[in-house]
Amino acid sequence: MSEAKQPVKVKVSRAALLRSTRLFKYIQPYRLTFGLGLLALLVSSVSGLVLFSSLGDLIDVQTDQLNNEIGKITLFLLGILVLQGLTSFVRIYTFSFVTERSMARLRQDVFASLLTLPMEWFSDRTTGEISSRISADISSVQSTLTTYLAEFVRQVITVVGTIVILMGTSFKLALFMVGTLPAMAVLAVVFGRYVRKLGKKAQEEVAESTALLEEVLNGIATVKAFTTEWWEFSKYREKTDRVVKTGMKNAIARGTFATFIVVFIFGSIVGLVWFGGRLVASGEISTGELFRFFMLSALMAGSAGGLAETYAQLQKSIGATEHLLDIMEATPEIPKPIALKAKVAAPKGSIRFSNVSFEYLSRKGVLVLKDFNLEIPEGKTTALVGRSGAGKSTIAYLLLRFYQPQSGLVYWGEEPVEQMELLIYRSFIGYVPQEVMLFSGSIAENIRYGSVHASKDEVEQAARLANAHEFISEFPDGYETKVGERGMRLSGGQRQRIAIARAMLANPALLILDEATSSLDNASEGLVREALDRLMQNRTSLVIAHRLSTIKHADSIVVLEKGQIIEQGNHYELLQRSGFYAHLLKTGLDAE
């Protein structure tokens, strides 16, 4: 089970900031609305300062018993409150308006970029990593634009504004506060980070022990079969003991932090009240000014304390932006996902591998194919046979142009396939894998994957040819039956026949079957085999198979070993040679 990864905090360097500003192109179409939100934010922040500052005037008026002024100041404060409420609404609405629309465009562009990336990019990353990464990154950017950016601006305005007002209210008292509270606040922030770090570590250790528990429960049959209960218990005990140790460290840290807050922070506040009281007693400031000073100090402390957390969130957002830009700026294999306007006629002639050498980037130095030569005749069925790792699937991947060979060329007719436009080239190919991937829509939608604009009659005809119409008709919803995630509501044989119907509808010039019947029971295999025979008739076909029933009627069987062709011929010719092919049959080719 993949866990969503949290956005990584990065150093807010000039280069990172400049790169992150590229995402502001998504805000560009809504710049006037965003500007209105910033104006509302500014007015809301300033009105908050005015509100807290004016509370002291209200106390001074009450102290001097100037009753005729109380009403005016009260109405003024109520007006400020209404203004602040309205501007807060405008700010939240406009920021949400801009963010929701710009993030929708960002999601669309990231998804479009993913669709254009080559298979090598995906082979280096897990599906869970990609999906959780994108989800966490876009959520981080969205939270920043909706909340944290506004909070950061508001907190900066509040801190700067309160400092100016405090210095004007009482320079002595402000100097006394600067000499005590900020140092305590910095220590509190540092201490708080340490406590949060320990808390996060404790959560991670609990998650590790929970993951072990889930793993053991999922594999309980294996645990009992190998009598490793004691071993799993010892691992679980070790992990839970670590949770206890970290939990106690956390308790000590939280207790110390609480003591620090009570003694030093509140002690500093008591000292500030004492010094302010002396200034009031000496007549240097009024009671209202002292009250204003304390209110603004509390406002500044809250904003200053929140700045650290907001800054951390901005760091995460910059890191998230970096990851999203890495995806969108990765080298694509096609410019953008576009629909082909019309079916283009496929090239004529056989398909040839000419001195092809290939290695996967993840396995540098390990040649899967070396100076490989193979001809797949037009309109004929060519089968690939060999042990696991012989290079069979690699040949299929090179034909699909999922990967490019390091040297050599693949020709279709007289033209190298790498010179053909990729989307058009792949439209010539039908692919039926061993593990069929169905999408979570209806059966009809999955069959239409072969031709998205096919009519209902064309879909049904393809299903009939694939021996799928009968079982589809037995479902209450027929072709509108939902197949579930990855098609898990259907049996293996049913999924294979849906995939064959999909290929039938595509009517490809080249058909690639990658072990299409190796995991089926005999009854299902018979139906699938019959459908495949129809599909391969008079069509250039490449079959990767283990079962004898799949390959014995092939026009040519190519036997591979370590990326090299060691035998080639039809089934009966290879049996008469009593070579490697015959040996594979004797040692259980059908069982692989």
Structure, explained:
This protein has 592 residues and is of the alpha/beta class. Among the domains are: 1-169 and 310-337, ABC transporter transmembrane region fold, CATH 1.20.1560; 171-284; 429-507, Rossmann fold, CATH 3.40.50.300. It contains 19 helices and 10 strands. It has helices at residues 14-20, 31-63, 67-116, 119-123, 127-169, 171-218, 220-225, 229-281, 287-328, 392-399, 422-426, 443-447, 456-465, 469-474, 492-506, 522-536, 548-551, 571-577, 580-586, and strands at residues 351-358, 369-376, 381-386, 407-412, 415-416, 429-432, 510-514, 540-544, 556-561, 564-569. The strands form 2 sheets. The chain has a 6-stranded mixed sheet, sandwiched between helices. Helix 13 crosses helix 15. Mean pLDDT is 80; it is low at 1-8.
Q: What would the keywords be for this entry?
A:
592 residues, alpha/beta, ABC transporter transmembrane region fold, Rossmann fold, 6-stranded mixed beta sheet, elongated
Helix-strand makeup class = alpha/beta
CATH topology of the domain at 1-169 and 310-337: ABC transporter transmembrane region fold
Put simply, the count of helices is 19
Main-sheet strand order equals 6-7-8-3-9-10
Beta-strand percentage? 5-15%
Query: How far apart are the first and last residues' alpha carbons, in Å?
Result: 29 Å
Sheet having the most strands: 6 strands, mixed
Helicity, as a percent range: 55-70%
Low-pLDDT stretches = 1-8
Indicate the radius of gyration in whole angstroms. Answer: 35 Å
Count of distinct strands: 10
Q: What is the H level of CATH, i.e. the homologous superfamily of the domain at 1-169 and 310-337?
A: ABC transporter type 1, transmembrane domain
CATH class of the domain at 1-169 and 310-337: Mainly Alpha
